[in-house]
């Protein structure tokens, strides 16, 4: 344009800034801005907002705030979109408190807050599980006559769902309906998923039915949530029906769909059905991921097909899907259950050499395996090592160790472990007491057993 003698104006250059900003070329955006100033154009709020957005997209929120301060100091005015962009940028990098402070700073002084600013902070608070704070901010919006939109409601409904307060989520959903705010697929998917995660598949299907009645077409996320819910309550046939229905409804399954079904089949030891799906998945050119392989390996291990599971581990390496600690934990568990504890120890050493850090679950499997193989001293050594390394041992790990002592008739050591457990802030559960009490009664240590039984009753565990 310029070579042809067509002079650029502020609009042209602002568009160019926006193009560079979307491409992440922040330095070029600011070069164009320098050109604007050089040509004597008076930049406006749109130009400044575009530059602020460019910095926010790159995660350079503090540079964006500094630029804002410079702009305001020079007497330029910014608008609601500018501040909405800054607040959203702060929220995206987890600076929720700073975003709220900025809202308070501009409120009525620089610009009037709008639904975009409030919704961004409400969303950020919900993701931080500060749902009560988010709800207070929502109430403040309404008090200021700022109407919440579908985004505001979706974020709040999601917030209540992730902390298990489904009643409040449903109340907000009802409020949306009463205020004629069109709920979208995201609203329905949040609720379907929340009910399914709680194992309340009937309520989830009611939401699904409402969704269909209102003409909102379910997507792969909706179907995946329903399948996951049915698998959770071990109604695998219902999950499989939904999996088959998806295709008939014109919704293509994705890798997660297959993972849910493979995991569901493996959990109830229908490993051949899981293998059929795994093969079908590859025929349909879906690439199995670490989750697919790990679910299948776990199912094979629990069905005693360790050699095939190990072949799949090799296949994972060949396909560039490195096994993780959960994959290896399944194999360790199978080795220990089949009394191959030395092989399990060797595998654990290899895992560490590969730079994979074992977790508490992995070590608990090994401790259990050692105890059941009569190698109590080795189990105790691993247990004590975990304490020294600062692992936050859970009730399951302590109970396994207590059971190990009881099986060897070392009741004083078992009771000492119970005391140590309490001292370390780990509360014994019904299983812990049950292991001790049954072992003590078997050895005619009735007084000690009855004392623990009374303690169990006092704690409300019986």
Automatic annotation (TrEMBL):
SUPFAM superfamilies to which the protein is assigned, alphabetical: TPR-like
Q: Does the keyword Transmembrane helix apply?
A: no
Alphabetically sorted, this entry's keywords are:
Repeat
Residue ranges of the PPR repeats are 9-43, 44-78, 79-113, 114-148, 149-183, 184-218, 219-253, 254-288, 289-323, 324-358, 359-393, 394-428, 429-462
Per the record's keyword annotation, is DNA-binding included, yes or no?
A: no
Instruction: Kindly name one Pfam family recorded for this protein.
Output: PPR_1
* NCBIfam families assigned to the protein according to its UniProt record, in alphabetical order: PPR (TIGR00756)
State what protein this is by name. Answer: Pentacotripeptide-repeat region of PRORP domain-containing protein
